[in-house]
Amino acid sequence: MVRYMYSTAVAGHKYAQARENFFDDGTVELQSYATRIISITPEGWLHVTGLYSMTTIKHIGWFMRERGFTYQLAKQLYKDNKEFNIYTGECRDRG
Fold first, then answer.
1. pTM of the model as a whole
2. DSSP string, 38-74
3. Of 32, 66, 72, 77, which sits with the fewest C-beta atoms within 10 Å of its C-beta?
4. Which of 73, 78, 56 is nearest to 10 (CA)?
């Protein structure tokens, strides 16, 4: 059973309504307000659930830049219904 471990503000944006949630299996999620936006599995698969509002787009950009990627990558993955492996660079259809 996967359990929630802790949550922290997105780096450098402690007053924003964006949180990074960390789980005991190694999963990391970006949460904007009460909505899970991005998840990264322990195997490195990045999944984007939506782009939502302009504020959430900013949160996505912060989260992606922190990991060496861009908002544009997240946008394209969402539009193309794909997942991206942050370790290998591989793309696959979102399951």
1. 0.86
2. EEE-TT-EEEE----SHHHHHHHHHHHHHTT--HHHH
3. 72
4. 56
